[in-house]
Backbone:
């Protein structure tokens, strides 16, 4: 299976652990990811706050760059995923806007026919396209004994969700059940991490981060699994500051779901970007998976 | 569901509808409050989305565009997916952000400064630039060096783990991207 791949800016550096683990896991599963040549930033939420047409045009350049032989574009970052999917849909459903976006693209010698590319999230590719049987076949280190809290965040499951619930998604839960982990059921798994609010209003962002850490910890999670670089940065990078702000002592590793998937597949943790997170994940894995994961 | 609800031309309601994809759903608001009740930032807001929609209907343009509601929004889309009338509330919030920025009606928030710094770097390099964003935003746009210093220890850890690049990444065809952006700005003025 061949897909165009849009890593997005975060995955180039801040979330390189996500990029490396996505590529390693895809390789092992026979998912061919062809990186979009010369892709540009999706603009996150920042263009939509200023100029809708510019927002769509900047995003559509990436859609226009997808190899004509490839129908599907994979984006692991939640913001990139939604922006690409939303722009495709806006262009399809609002012909006037679609025409204007193409007028902009034409200034750069490009064109995009809405609907030409289907935008997918990596989780959906693994769960829906690869599926349970093929995933189970690859497991060499079952995650038995590890309690994980799948964290979905916002923009992959809302407003456009791909075969899951916008309120209480289950795909990542299922995936980690296939791998033998104990999946923690916690009510805030699709609540917001604060997004860019850490940069604008720390009290507001810290409260949202606290709720997630508290709920996952109260329900016994050893670690939180995420699928978005912004969520990872807020929960991991700001965890120490949230602790000092509230007088708490959470020490929860925040790991990309593809990193832990790679561990279950027996991939060397170094190739999965472990060690980049501020709250270390490997010691927890070693403690919980002791005896069956000599290589971890 | 009523097929046609007449919207008076020249009203603020008509203006918001015109500037938001699927904005015409606004007229179906029941004032049920599912949006405000679902909002993780509701407690921070002067007016919850429900109240804001009532104010749009009432034509209270000045108060709406000066409200802090839009700047507390985290774009989580919980209001949008829960709205029983399928009103694209998050997109309406984006529309109000655009209007508020265009007319400089916001106050007490650094969100527009963050947005401007972010897109400045996209137009310069074609990619976002985190180190530039952090320094440019905290020092040049909002002048809060203390905030930058508070981020210091985390920034150092990010650098140490190779999670923050000192130099920006740049796309090859930056001229193409700039031509596309320039065209979009021209068309937006029409």
Residues:
């Amino acid at each position: 299976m061949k897909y165009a791949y849009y890593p997005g800016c975060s995955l180039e550096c801040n979330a390189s652990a996500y990029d490396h683990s996505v590529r390693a896991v895809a390789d092992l599963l026979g998912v061919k990811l062809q990186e979009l040549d010369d892709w540009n930033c999706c603009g996150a939420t920042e263009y939509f706050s200023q100029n809708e047409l510019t927002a769509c045009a900047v995003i559509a350049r990436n859609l226009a760059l997808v190899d004509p032989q490839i129908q599907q574009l994979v984006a692991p970052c939640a913001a990139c995923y939604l922006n690409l999917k939303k722009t495709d849909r806006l262009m399809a459903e609002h012909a006037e806007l679609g025409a204007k976006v193409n007028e902009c693209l034409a200034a750069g010698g490009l064109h995009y026919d809405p609907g030409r590319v289907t935008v997918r999230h990596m989780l959906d590719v693994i769960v829906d396209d690869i599926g349970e049987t093929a995933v189970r076949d690859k497991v060499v280190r079952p995650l038995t004994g590890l309690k994980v809290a799948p964290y979905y965040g916002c923009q992959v499951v809302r407003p456009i969700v791909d075969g899951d619930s916008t309120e209480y998604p289950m795909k990542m839960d299922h995936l980690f059940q296939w791998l033998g982990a104990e999946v923690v059921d916690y009510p805030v798994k699709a609540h917001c991490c604060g997004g860019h609010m850490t940069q604008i209003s720390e009290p507001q962002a810290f409260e949202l981060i606290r709720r997630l850490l508290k709920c996952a910890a109260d329900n016994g999670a050893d670690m939180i699994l995420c699928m978005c670089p912004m969520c990872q940065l807020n929960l991991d990078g700001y965890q120490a500051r949230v602790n000092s702000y509230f007088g708490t002592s959470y020490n929860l590793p925040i790991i990309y779901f593809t990193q832990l998937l790679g561990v279950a597949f027996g991939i060397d943790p170094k190739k999965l970007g472990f060690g980049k997170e501020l709250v270390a994940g490997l010691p927890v894995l070693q403690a919980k998976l002791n005896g069956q994961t000599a290589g971890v | 569901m009523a097929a046609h609800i007449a919207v008076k031309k020249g009203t603020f309601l008509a203006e918001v509808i015109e500037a938001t994809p699927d904005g015409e759903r606004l007229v179906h608001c029941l004032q049920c409050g599912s949006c405000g009740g679902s909002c993780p930032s509701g407690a921070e807001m002067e007016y919850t989305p429900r109240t804001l929609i009532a104010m749009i209907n009432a034509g209270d343009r000045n108060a709406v565009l000066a409200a802090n509601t839009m700047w507390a929004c985290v774009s989580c889309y919980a209001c949008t997916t829960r709205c029983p009338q399928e009103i694209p509330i998050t997109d309406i919030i984006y529309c109000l952000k655009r209007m508020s920025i265009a007319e400089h009606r916001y106050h007490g928030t650094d969100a527009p400064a963050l947005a401007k710094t972010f897109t400045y770097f996209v137009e310069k390099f074609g990619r976002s630039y985190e180190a530039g964003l952090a320094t440019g935003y905290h020092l040049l746009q909002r002048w809060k060096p203390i905030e930058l210093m508070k981020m210091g220890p985390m920034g150092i850890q990010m650098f140490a783990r190779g999670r923050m690049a000192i130099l920006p990444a740049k796309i090859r065809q930056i001229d193409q991207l700039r031509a596309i952006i320039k065209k979009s700005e021209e068309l937006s003025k029409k």
